[in-house]
Predict the structure of Cortexin domain containing 2.
Amino acid sequence: MDDSSLSSTVDVDKGFAIAFVVLLFLFLIVMIFRCVKLVKNPYETTFTTTESSLS
């Protein structure tokens, strides 16, 4: 009886879906900030990436 009441209140698929949406939203926010930084100063961003790969 306790197992059936627990399984009816906890929906694993819904939890995975919510976690996926939250992680996707966080990834989108990070990508927006990176793109804004690139648009504001593209030469500094490309210079630092090439400099770090040469080291």
